[in-house]
Specification:
It is a single chain. This protein has helices at about 5-15, 30-35, 50-65, 75-80, 80-90, 120-125, 135-150, 190-200, 215-225, 250-255, 270-275, 310-320, 330-350, 350-360, 375-385, 405-415, 425-430, 435-440, 455-465, 480-485, 500-510; strands at about 20, 40-45, 65-70, 95-100, 130, 160-165, 205-210, 230, 245-250, 260-265, 285-290, 305, 370, 390-395, 420-425, 445-450, 490-495, 515-520. By secondary structure, it is α/β, with parallel strands linked by helices.
């Protein structure tokens, strides 16, 4: 078979059933090969390359499984670059299939259509691993290796680049499954050392990130043994159900950090606590991370275990009873903290909290919430109750404006039984609003809420606060978002209050079809005092390497 046929069959062999894409001339033979297998590998074409890549990312975040997108080289690849960067930031298994100019022209500067000076270097800079395919056999072998790379250690995107003349090259090919993921053996001595430290702790604290999403039961078991509150911010939301007495948000984790003597950090960069909240001799850190380089990135921990979260936590759970001191339940303590903090947030961030209460009331428990960089999105990281892993999707530290709608489309395609809701501001929504056409074309029942304040709201807020009230380049001229949605064939609605939003959401979910709800708002109170938290331990934090 030729390279195009081999690559399609290799993707199917790896378990993919959907390919997010935007075709073009450099990849025509690949799409012709895909035509003959479209019942097994469904193409979902977007209206912009960023839309295709964000859909793959949303599907990967919602499932934890690998996803793939395919785009043309040059501008097509660069358009998808923000999504690849976000996949890297969120540790997502996204495979980028990128076309290329003919092999003989690569690096020659001929000015071929869609040529870049060194496309593979850019691809490698945005991925954990990337290679160029030179023939049918290599297509199969490199596809298997790409999936092995994405599954091993820290999950991150991978890339394959295929020159346009390579698609037609033929060879005898055997379709391969990927080799088993390579995982380091868990060091039992380090587990014992961690159990001794944590077992002796008087005020233990657990912080979890995206690396703990597949270890929900294990996190809960260790937390209950230690009576340790579990703090999350973005990626780790839902690892421990928000209703659990030990589940706390970022500001409460910050408050508990000040008095914690041992902290267990699982699958999290721990960036803000270590760099900003402060470290001193009175706090010891135990870290579990799939990336062996991560635990010592800011400073060496007391114990660093290189391992996936679930198996390492199971070993820790089994070791803890040998060292665990007798502790009183902290349910009453954390419950009182949570209630007082909820009242404070309602007083200080009332408009956002009211809308989030309406969203939570309308979104079924198994629903997926996709946050964007808007005031409601920022506060959702602190105040939206999240009940299950992979039901709160965030762009992580990349802070990718405009990613929400297409990511929600991918999440809905990957988990069709789950209701999916995305929130965006009027600024971010128009980055990718054209993907409403994809929602209609592929019948993807995502509900989008657009909070319209007529500005890049955060930009305006910071300019007013930090530059003497001088505001520049932050005001927006907006369409009527409900009518815009209707022009695509999408249900368009409006809501002018939290109560009206809840009612509109209930109608929208009942449609089982794409819907957009516009909510016009005024300026909202700043959530940043609850996100950019000050130092709470006395010593200076160590500088990053």
């Amino acid at each position: 078979m030729n390279t195009a046929q081999a690559l399609v069959r290799a993707l199917i062999a790896q378990g993919l059933d959907t390919l997010y894409c935007l075709p073009g001339v450099q990849n025509d033979p690949f799409f012709d090969a895909l035509y003959h297998h479209r019942d097994r590998l469904r193409p979902v074409h977007a209206r912009h390359e960023q839309g295709a890549a964000y859909m793959a990312l949303g599907a990967a975040l919602a499932t934890g499984r690998p996803q793939a997108f395919c785009v043309v080289p040059g501008p097509g690849f660069l358009n998808a670059g923000a999504a690849l960067a976000t996949a890297y930031a969120t540790n997502s298994r996204v495979l980028a299939l990128v076309g290329q100019v003919p092999s003989a022209a690569i690096g020659r500067g001929f000015g071929m259509l869609h040529e870049l000076p060194d496309q593979l270097a850019i691809l490698r800079g945005l991925c954990k691993w990337a290679e160029r395919v030179s023939g049918a056999r290599e297509a199969v072998a490199l596809t298997a290796e790409a999936f092995r790379q994405m599954a091993s250690g820290r999950p991150r995107p991978a890339g394959l680049e295929v020159p346009m003349d390579v698609w037609a090259r033929e060879a005898e090919v055997e379709i391969l499954q990927s080799a088993p993921a390579v995982e380091p053996e868990i060091d039992d001595e380090l587990v014992e050392a961690a159990a001794k430290l944590l077992g002796a702790a008087e005020r233990p604290l657990i912080l979890v990130g995206g690396g703990a999403l597949d270890a929900s039961a294990e996190v809960r078991a260790v937390a209950e043994l230690l009576q340790a509150p579990v703090g999350t911010y973005r990626a780790g939301r839902g690892v421990l159900d928000s209703r659990h007495p030990l589940s706390v948000n970022l500001p409460l984790a910050h408050r508990l950090w000040a008095s914690a003597d041992v902290v267990l950090a699982v699958g999290t960069r721990l960036q803000q606590p270590q760099q900003v909240w402060g470290l001193d001799d009175g706090i010891k850190i135990v870290r579990i991370d799939a990336d062996p380089d991560e635990p010592s990135r800011f400073c060496p921990p007391a114990v660093g275990i290189a391992a996936k979260a679930a198996p390492a936590l199971r070993k820790l759970r089994d070791a803890l009873p040998r060292y665990n001191r007798k502790r009183s339940s902290r349910t009453e303590e954390t419950g009182a903290l949570k209630q007082a903090h909820a009242r404070e947030l309602a007083q200080r961030l009332g408009p956002q909290i009211a809308f989030l209460d309406a969203i939570r009331a309308a979104l079924p428990e198994d629903g997926i919430f996709v946050e964007e960089l808007t005031q409601i999105g920022y506060v959702s990281r602190l105040a939206l109750p999240v009940y299950h892993p992979r039901s709160f999707l965030s762009s992580g530290y990349q802070g990718t404006l405009g990613w929400g709608l297409p990511a929600a489309l991918g999440a809905k395609l990957a988990r069709p039984q789950a209701p999916v809701l995305s929130v965006a501001g009027d600024g971010g929504f128009l980055f990718t609003a054209q993907e409403l056409a994809s929602a209609v074309r592929h019948r993807i029942a995502v509900v989008s809420v657009v909070f319209n304040d007529g500005h890049y709201g955060n930009v305006r807020m910071f300019q007013e606060q930090n530059f003497g009230g001088r505001v520049i380049a932050a005001d927006l001229a907006n369409p009527d978002f409900a009518k815009l949605a209707e022009s695509f064939g999408v249900a368009g609605m409006r809501a002018d209050s939290p109560k009206a939003l809840r009612e509109a959401l209930e109608r929208a979910f009942a449609l089982n079809a794409p819907a957009v709800i516009e909510v016009r708002t005024g300026e909202m109170p700043s959530p940043w005092p609850y996100i950019q938290l000050p130092r709470c331990r006395p010593s200076r934090a160590p500088a990053a390497r």
